[in-house]
Design a protein that fits this description.
Layout: E1 6-9, H1 12-16, H2 19-27, E2 29-31, H3 39-47, E3 72-74, H4 76-81, H5 91-118, H6 120-128, H7 137-162, H8 185-203, H9 207-229, H10 236-240, E4 241-245, E5 250-253, H11 280-294, H12 304-308, E6 314-318, H13 325-343, E7 347-351, H14 363-376, E8 381-386, H15 389-392, H16 403-417, E9 427-433, H17 441-444, E10 449-452, H18 459-470, H19 489-498, H20 506-519, H21 525-538, H22 544-558, H23 565-569, H24 579-589, H25 595-643
Parallel strand pairs: 1-4, 6-9, 6-10, 7-8, 8-9
Antiparallel strand pairs: 2-3, 4-5
Helix pairs in contact: 2-5, 5-7, 7-8, 7-9, 8-9, 11-13, 11-19, 14-16, 20-21, 22-25
Length: about 650
């Protein structure tokens, strides 16, 4: 897949020529707020216990819509250097100022490039001379608004990127950003600096909060500017071009936030594959997926597996408590972390937990979106997990689901299979649950693969796990048993797949036997489609998305090979090759798709859906029976009490 964007280099000369203008803005600008209200003034009035006074509203015709707020001087250098009690600016304060200056210069350079590409620069010259034709005045205004939003977003984007390394665990809630102006680029930047100055006054009490405030403000400006840009014309030149700042390793791709390629340092306890007992298919697919991620090409920003088919973007791991879901996460994270360390790739692992559910309206959704954005960052190899997803993501229509849980559900659904979802193949998301039947049906169906985490099953499995967990500090003889022989992955996986040649769940087995009796062996596309229709008639939740997940799983089976370990240990053999070379090496290993593969994957997926549906229905019935019983008992006691009066 070729990239559609045209790379445009913003050279150091292009950027540094705007340094003087950037410094002048930081030294001081006068700005009259158009939309926002001065936060500092409001806070002062409220703290004095007095109500706010109405702003004077002119009754003169033509002046009624003109703001009567006084212009305020914004001196950001003074504001930043006044943080804390030290008379001299700290290293953090200097870094923040340098970062903002650099971001302003980059934004001005990008705005200038946009202006040249769209002909706006010529219209500006004609406007100065008073020669803009009447027929082009509307175009001129639209281009000015487009340049303003492009410049404003680039400023916030570059600020967030350049100061990412200064971020700490400290976070700040700054409230909504309001002063988003699109009259022209200069006014947009002045408005941004004015509101940033307001936020710094209220929240930046020390260096950590200074950085946190600037980053929180930049994130909100990007979000608001991108939202405004959806309805703003003449932005095609900005959206279709990629501006590259080589010195900062920054690429500006339209209204998509750039993230610094910084990996997360993992402190979890890693597990080796031989320490995962049972769970043969889940373990095998996790090991394959870990190696698939490493095929990602950072130059092309694409993984050959994502193009050829067979890449698992989302998967659902379900099983009873204690069957090894956490161990599976530790194993996969450990594998990917080790591979990335060998190759020198940045690796980012993140878990969405119950800590991300917030009582503040909209905050839970923001937390979930931040989690998604951190993992899908195309500059890193990412692994995101959502453990106990039934507790995190609310089920629509369930009265017990909180607003925060429903916000998380909406974000995950949009991110995993929404209109704007792009699967590059650099990351994967794993959803894990002991009770998948409590997960919203639509969200659960967005899991492209199903990992049944069933833990130890056979006698050999239980001997292996006992020997593993007992450790070595004992003299108990092993007996007649070869440790981990039963965990030989290829042999165990082959047996597990063959076990799905027929359905496991009773409801699905009835459909399978009925269809097979009517049309015979399922050996053609038409017969397989008839079987799928029979499943849909038995379970209305078996929709087109289910078919897509099954075909994706079949493509995974076609890629049913492990990339050789030496390819991971010696990066020059595979990881450091060009995208086309990687793609060719993978295509040589690909296997043909067979009827048995398709039947097994249909049964694996449909078995899981029938299992979830049966559990969900049984739980609902049990709850209703309990409620009816309570109602009857309450009625009996009530009648007894009335009779005793």
């Amino acid at each position: 897949m070729s990239q559609s964007a045209d790379f445009m280099e913003l050279t150091e000369d292009d950027i540094r020529k705007h340094y003087a203008a950037a410094v002048a803005m930081l030294e001081g600008v006068d700005h009259t707020p158009r939309i926002a209200t001065a936060k500092e003034a409001l806070q002062t009035e409220k703290s004095a216990g007095l109500g706010t006074r109405r702003r004077f509203r002119s009754t003169t015709p033509g002046l009624v819509t003109r703001s009567t707020a006084r212009p305020e001087g914004v001196r950001l250098i003074e504001r930043v250097e006044s943080v804390g009690e030290d008379a001299l600016p700290s290293a953090i304060q200097a870094s923040v100022l340098h970062g903002i200056r650099r971001a302003l210069a980059i934004a001005l350079a990008a705005g200038e490039a946009f202006s040249e590409a769209t002909g706006l620069s010529e219209l500006k010259k004609e406007n100065l001379a008073g020669r803009v034709a009447e027929a082009r005045r509307a175009e001129f205004g639209e281009l000015l608004a487009a340049e303003a939003l492009a410049t404003l977003f680039t400023f916030a984007n570059a600020t967030s990127f350049l100061l990412a390394s200064q971020a700490s665990e400290t976070s700040v809630e700054i409230g909504a950003v309001e002063e988003i102006l699109s009259d022209n680029a200069q006014l947009a930047l002045h408005g941004a600096l004015w509101e940033l100055d307001q936020d710094l006054t209220l929240f930046a009490s020390d260096d950590a909060k200074l950085v946190a405030t600037v980053l929180a403000y930049a994130e909100q400006v990007m979000e608001k500017a991108a939202l405004r840009a959806q309805n703003t014309p003449r932005l095609a030149a900005f959206n279709s071009a990629s501006y590259r700042v080589e010195a900062d390793n920054l690429t500006i791709n339209g209204f998509t936030p750039a993230h610094a390629a910084k990996g997360s340092k993992l402190t979890m306890t890693f597990k080796k594959p031989n320490e995962v007992v049972g769970n043969h298919i889940a373990k095998y697919q996790s090991m394959k997926l870990a190696k698939m991620l490493m095929a990602y090409d950072f130059d092309r920003k694409l993984n050959p597996f994502a193009e050829l088919g067979g890449f698992i973007f989302t998967f659902m791991g379900d099983g009873a408590p204690g069957t090894g879901k956490t161990t599976l996460i530790q194993m996969m994270a450990g594998l990917v972390s080790g591979y990335c360390e060998t190759a020198g790739y940045p690796f980012r692992y993140q878990n969405l937990s119950t800590d991300n559910i917030d009582s503040y309206q909209g905050k839970s959704g923001q937390n979930a979106k931040a989690f998604i954005n951190n993992v899908i960052d195309p500059n890193v190899i990412g692994f995101g997990t959502i453990d106990d997803i039934d507790q995190l993501a609310g089920k629509r229509g369930d009265r017990q689901s909180s607003a925060g849980q429903l916000e998380i559900t909406a974000v995950l659904m949009e991110s995993f299979a929404g209109a704007n979802t792009v699967v590059r193949g650099n990351c994967t998301f794993g959803m894990f649950s002991n009770y998948p039947e409590n997960v919203d049906d639509a969200l659960r169906q967005r899991a492209g693969a199903r990992f049944l985490v069933d833990g130890p099953i056979t006698r050999d499995d239980y001997i292996d796990i006992l020997a593993l967990l007992m450790g070595k500090n004992h003299d108990i003889p092993l007996g007649e048993h070869t440790v981990f022989a039963a965990q030989e992955i290829k042999k165990a996986v082959a047996a597990s797949f063959e076990g799905h040649s027929k359905p496991h769940e009773d409801g699905l087995l009835q459909v399978y036997e009925r269809v097979s009796k009517d049309i015979g062996s399922l050996d053609t596309i038409a017969k397989l489609g008839t079987y799928l229709k029979g499943i849909q008639e038995a379970d209305h939740r078996f929709t087109g998305r289910a078919i897509k997940n099954i075909t994706d799983a079949v493509k995974v089976r076609a890629m049913d090979f492990e990339l050789p370990d030496e390819w991971m240990e010696e990066p020059d053999l595979f990881l450091f090759k060009s995208y086309d070379e990687k793609k060719g090496m993978i295509e040589e290993l690909r296997q043909p798709i067979t009827v048995d593969m398709v039947i097994q994957e249909i049964n694996r997926y449909a078995d899981s859906e029938f299992r979830y549906a049966d559990k969900s229905d049984e739980v609902a019935i049990a709850n209703m029976v309990r409620e009816f019983g309570l109602s009857e008992e309450a009625k009996r006691r009530y009648l007894e009490s009335k009779g005793g009066i």
